[in-house]
């Protein structure tokens, strides 16, 4: 097996045993990037190869830091890595060099990761399609004429194309789930608060986005998640969940799985999405789990209104200075301006009522999780679309009235900070991959990972059907 095909934990073990050097792994990684990255444009801002080889040799000559010692990683281009560019996909920040690591990136560095570059993202991470005016579009490894999803599209495509063995990502509206599903890999949105954000600005009001891990198998994803999680004393709303110990080998006890379908017709799906999802759920019964369709648990329109209010409020809060400066405003993409202008036009009571809806939905999920252990929805409502398209404007004959309405399927979990693991579930008749969201109550992260691991042992879609690059 080629080195670039190996899983991260396997590579880590080989390095620890002295059977593989960090320099050998770095050379294999750079060779793979040279061979395939021009097709997909997933890794951007790649550092000088000679400097990277020197760092790898230095890692070979120093004591082992942690399980990531000598493992090459490229970081999503929304996060800061010291002395590397952070463009966020925006010409406003093109060429900006980070002065220090973000908190989570520092944890990866402390565990021994070697940072080789960045993974591509949409401008400011807005939209589930990875393209921007700085680095261009990331293409799907399974069809380079299609989108890789987003906003962690560069990370997912790099994993699928075997340029990386693990990757970080972030998720407000499906950004760890949609690209994982569209690239036949695993992505995890942890319980909100388990992976701390940067301790800057407001620390209380914005609870929609989180960072998280991605990989080609759940064990690697759990290991990376264990490195990323952990309380930060500067942040008051953190949650402590132990993901550091290895996943056990024994199967998870039978789970009651609730299939939410198309939410009573509120979520239009392209042909084949529901069928692929239901076929995967039928396979899950072979693991001893019980799958049952659920009635509509909450009014979809009310949830959507809450989401777009709180999302615009959050985006405007973070990007207002760019909007207020006429020189930077003219460089913002239309989706950014739309979100900011909605956010600054809101009254305090509009935000309050949106949060009341969020609270009502959370209370309803407490009841749901007394009936079932896991809720399931598709990772996206459509298949990967043409890479030159900005976003889908209709699904199954239903007009999408915003730039992000086509990803409505991800907000039931994201709105209230529930943990979600995307699992790859196979391919449609069009040859494109799809995924399922496994959603659990707060704190059930490890159980979801174990369910995903049992699924992986039975199916192993990432290795069963890698992209033909």
Structure description:
The structure is a single chain. The chain has 469 residues and is an alpha+beta fold. The protein is 37% helix and 15% strand. The chain has helices at 8-16, 22-40, 49-60, 103-110, 153-160, 178-182, 218-228, 273-285, 300-324, 326-329, 334-345, 348-371, 411-414, 445-459, 461-464; strands at residues 43-44, 72-76, 114-119, 131-132, 136-137, 139-140, 143-147, 166-171, 186-189, 210-215, 256-259, 290-293, 374-378, 394-395, 398-399, 420-427, 433-439. The chain has an eight-stranded mixed sheet, with helices on both faces. Strands 1-3-2 form a three-stranded mixed sheet. A two-stranded antiparallel sheet has the order 4-5. Helix 2 runs antiparallel to helix 3 and helix 7 (218-228) packs antiparallel against helix 14. It is globular and about 60 Å long.
Features:
469 residues; alpha+beta; 8-stranded mixed β-sheet; 15 helices; 37% helix; 15% strand
Radius of gyration: 21 Å
The number of helical segments is: 15
Mind summarizing the main beta sheet? 8 strands, mixed
Overall helicity: 25-40%
Strands of the widest sheet, in order across it, are: 8-10-9-16-17-13-11-12
* Distance, first to last CA: 16 Å
The assigned structural class equals alpha+beta
Output mean pLDDT.
Answer: 97
Please mark out the parts with pLDDT under 50 across 5 or more consecutive residues, or reply none.
none
Write the SSE topology.
Layout: H1 8-16, H2 22-40, E1 43-44, H3 49-60, E2 72-76, H4 103-110, E3 114-119, E4 131-132, E5 136-137, E6 139-140, E7 143-147, H5 153-160, E8 166-171, H6 178-182, E9 186-189, E10 210-215, H7 218-228, E11 256-259, H8 273-285, E12 290-293, H9 300-324, H10 326-329, H11 334-345, H12 348-371, E13 374-378, E14 394-395, E15 398-399, H13 411-414, E16 420-427, E17 433-439, H14 445-459, H15 461-464
Parallel strand pairs: 2-3, 11-12, 11-13
Antiparallel strand pairs: 1-3, 4-5, 6-7, 8-10, 9-10, 9-16, 13-17, 14-15, 16-17
Helix pairs in contact: 2-3, 7-14, 9-11, 9-12
